[in-house]
Structure to design on (324 residues):
């Protein structure tokens, strides 16, 4: 019996249940063990002020090292690139959507100045190179992610960003009770638990967090039976892509408040890599867009990091880390 550790939010339990079902479909019995993390308990402090790296994983890491669970299931974007001593990656499931979406507030009231909601939606969803900044009035958007905040303000410098915390259910409720225009969510999370509203806009110009949309399983180093069972549900292509994204993040050594984004996708025999760094208030942005041959044994994430450093990302990162 494999004991699967998970946070107790609806999304986390859904993800752990997927792992349980996959293991049991291959003949390995499993059961869920629910654990509450400090990231779930503190719903007020912005994530970047808490030291976001590991805030959702530390409790499960401790349970794993203390042999209270056999594996832990995480949204991979929440997992620090450096795993604790004694813990290893056991598997990565097939990735769902990596997109961010803007969920519109169903109770938002437009000001009486002739602004058209359809025009706002068009400007928000239009590809970045064609965007025109709304001139009628500034919007207020909610997110707890410094990455999402930075990219939004880079594109819409006149807008206001409000902090919003909690699991997806809590954030959707807070949005409906607010006067915000909308809030940014990971599309995969809402889709997985059937809560993606019809009034949402895909932000296909916004680069995701490294490994967004992927589910990661960790286990104790040397636990051969558990590692062998998990290896059977590993999705090779997803694991390859998210490794490149996390290598990019690791090479840049950004702090928890450094807005670093990355997306690797496979097309035929090539890996396409997009990465960016944006200052927290959106004023500066440096990006890379590279293609690597998969069979060339090139560490794509590290190569992309070198490319963005050549463009001047190093001083920008150092300045942001100093200001944290």
């Amino acid at each position: 019996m494999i004991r699967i550790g998970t946070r107790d939010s609806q999304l986390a339990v859904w993800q752990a249940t997927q792992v349980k079902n996959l293991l049991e479909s291959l003949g390995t019995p499993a059961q869920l063990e629910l654990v509450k993390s400090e990231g779930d308990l503190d719903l007020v402090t912005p994530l970047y002020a808490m030291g976001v790296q590991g805030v959702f994983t530390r409790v499960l890491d401790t349970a794993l090292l203390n042999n209270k669970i056999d594996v832990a299931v995480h949204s991979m974007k929440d997992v620090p690139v450096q795993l604790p001593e004694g813990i290893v990656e056991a598997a990565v499931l097939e990735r769902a959507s990596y997109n961010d979406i803007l969920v519109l507030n169903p109770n938002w009231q437009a000001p009486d100045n002739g602004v058209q909601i359809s025009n706002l939606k068009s400007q928000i969803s239009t590809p970045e190179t064609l965007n025109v900044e709304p001139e009628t009035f500034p919007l207020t958007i909610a997110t707890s992610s410094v990455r999402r905040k930075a990219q939004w303000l880079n594109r819409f410098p006149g807008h206001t960003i409000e902090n919003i915390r909690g699991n997806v259910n809590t954030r959707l409720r807070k949005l409906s009770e607010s006067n915000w225009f909308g809030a940014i969510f990971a599309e995969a999370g809402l889709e997985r638990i059937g809560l993606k509203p019809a009034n949402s806009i895909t932000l296909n110009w916004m680069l995701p967090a490294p490994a967004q949309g992927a589910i990661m399983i960790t286990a104790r180093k040397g636990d051969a039976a558990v590692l062998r069972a998990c290896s059977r549900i590993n999705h090779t292509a997803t694991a390859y892509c998210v490794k490149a994204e996390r290598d990019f993040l690791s090479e840049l050594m950004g702090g928890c408040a450094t807005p670093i984004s990355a997306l690797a996708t496979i097309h035929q025999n090539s890996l396409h890599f997009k990465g960016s760094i944006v200052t927290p208030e959106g004023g500066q942005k440096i990006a890379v867009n590279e293609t690597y041959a998969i069979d060339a044994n090139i560490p794509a994430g590290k190569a992309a990091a070198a490319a963005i450093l050549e463009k001047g990302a190093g001083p920008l990162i150092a300045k942001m880390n100093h200001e944290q």
Q: What stands out?
A: Residues 236-252 form the longest helix (17 residues). Residues 100-202 form a domain with the D-Maltodextrin-Binding Protein; domain 2 fold (CATH 3.40.190). DSSP finds twelve helices and 13 strands in the chain.
